[in-house]
Design goal:
96 residues, Rossmann fold, three-stranded parallel beta sheet, 4 helices, 41% helix, 16% strand, globular
């Protein structure tokens, strides 16, 4: 498991040759750069990257305001270990 403290660090991990990244888990709202922006930039490097964005905002708010584009899974806070596990499994098992 890789843990990035900043969006820049996440991008650096994505640029490393031979680095395996199965899933990106990020918050929607972060300092410096939003989670969806990080997903987009990393997908420019790794187009098949699977991603989950989480937020305390409702999914209706996130999608209605165009904060999150299609193809990115959403998980609403508060998150339980079981809900996180199920979402991760669902995203990793998705063939798209």
């Amino acid at each position: 498991m890789l843990e990035a403290a900043t969006p820049e660090q996440a991008l650096a991990f994505a640029r490393e040759p031979g680095q395996t990244i199965d899933l990106l888990l990020t918050d929607v709202v972060m300092p410096k750069m939003s989670g969806p922006e990080v997903v987009k930039l990393i997908r420019d490097i790794r187009p098949k990257l699977k991603a989950i964005c989480m937020s305390g905002y409702t999914d209706e708010t996130v999608f209605r305001h165009g904060i999150l584009e299609s193809g990115v899974a959403f998980l609403q806070k508060p998150i339980t270990p079981d809900s996180l596990r199920r979402k991760i499994r669902s995203v990793l098992d998705d063939e798209n």
